[in-house]
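Go through this one:
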Amino acid sequence: MSQPLLELKGITRSFMAGEREFIALKGIDLTIEAGEMLAIIGASGSGKSTLMNILGGLDYATAGSYKINGIETRSLGDEQLAELRRDYFGFIFQRYHLLTHLSALHNVEMPAIYAGTPQTQRHSRARELLARLGLAGHVSHRPSQLSGGQQQRVSIARALMNGGEVILADEPTGALDTASGKEVMQILAELHAAGHTVIIVTHDPKVAANAQRIVEVSDGEIVSDTRNTGLELPSDAPIEPKRSGARRLVASLGLFKEAFNMAWVALVSHRMRTLLTMLGIVIGITSVVSISAIGEGAKRYVLKDIQAIGSNTIDIFPGSSFGDSRASAIETLLPSDVDALNQLYYVDSATPVVGRHLLLRFGNIDLDAQVNGVSDRYFKVKGLKLEAGIAFSESDARRQAQVVVIDHNTRQRLFGANVDPLGQVILVGNLPCTVIGVTADNKNMFAASKALNVWVPYETAAGRLLGQRHLDSITVRIKDGQPSKVVEDNVNQLMLQRHGTKDFFTNNLDSIMQTVQKTSRSLALLLSLIAVISLLVGGIGVMNIMLVSVTERTREIGIRMAVGARQSDIRQQFLVEAVMVCLIGGIIGIALSYALGGLFSLFVKEWEMVFSLGSVVTAFACSTLIGIVFGFVPARNAARLDPIEALARD
């Protein structure tokens, strides 16, 4: 004797109704052979629907044994039951249970998606089934564009998509008019003739009369099991079943791709909900990227100003530190120290500096200005640029030439805008000097913007103007690529050897730059943390709306489970949706950040927002992480839904 297709022994199903136990099925024994057409009939509440759900693997028995092709289902987990639903069963529901946002074609091919069938094959199979059922012209129509009979035909085509060895029809004519009901029963009879096992659950004796075998259920027990010997099979050409050759192991990569496709369709179908979901992410990503760009732009602006006054320079002063009252009495910094420093490998150049506030005079205009005696290398060392004329040369220094370079402010005060200062003779103290150059306007935030400075050769200042041989300071320019701290240590060592005592101190502008960079990083981190808070708020918003989405789409989840979706498939789909929402929100946020950068540059001329690849990559990483972290709980809740309860939800 051959093994039965479906075999139930002592099946009991009980539910808790409050504090009381309700027994829906009581020791059911039933055997169904392959190729049978069987009707389970009974009044409402008799237990027939519960029996059908257990047969289809949507529900499980409290006690007893249920075998499918000899496989005991009690030992199977949720994932394995989902595979059985996908490979053996095709469900036809009274209320059709079609997804409203999908076309007829996409509704039909859904079981094949979870079976891992390639897209081309499942499209061809779905079109073939719809054409066989008279819906060739309705492939792209959504359920709302179809009549009840047409929707039921789509449901039948979906049941046959993976082969549908066993067709479970729950009140297949209950929501149809008489003509449509007869058409559906005719199709079920044809499926039976083609070799499918057809199980109809109904309360209508007229519908049950179409079956070869009628099983009556009352109060959770089988009260009769009879054969309909007078039934004739239909003479129409049968619909050929698609056997298990279409079934395959799920290709995880392909299913992941399909999860993205399904997620995209779901998001587009609910645009307003999607926009509200991603709003918090858009704001958060815009904040993070913009703040990062503003911080980087501000840092570069400050560092640029520091570099403009000589970031790779070391200044040497007499005394122990700034403000040392004995510094004015120390006269040990000499031109010979400059010569010694210029011999060091890691020193690009060194220049002496002496300075005094003296009176400048041109015509009847008198000004008090800072007069600096420096070498010809000073302008290179300090990075000063000339807007007119030239700087004095080494030969000018040797012959103590009476030449002077003035700054932009001095030019404006002495000569105004209409007089060319080059070649003019001004009195510096009591020494007449010819103006040979004018430095460019210094808008540096670290320089006194209104200060008046002029420069003469050090030899001229020492021999003809100040009568001072010792130096007020020495400025050393470090060679490019040399470590600033190492050079400073070596300069200190050389000066200590020459002087024999520590009567000087150094000031390294590189330390200022490092301090500014450290401060900038700290501020950027603080601002970024504030922006991350908005990202977290956005992530919580994603989670909340996704949780609402799970509630709204409970019926959809039940349908997907009924056609073969595993818990992992449902979890993956909702996770993918959450990640897609966050990634799209991230892209929009980055685009808004660049737009803000453009607006910023229109209104702020001094500096600009600086975007980096790192901030963009971080934004995408944050988007993905938020999608995974805050989408996990909704995805898990969706995967844990009971398919029976989910299908019953409106």
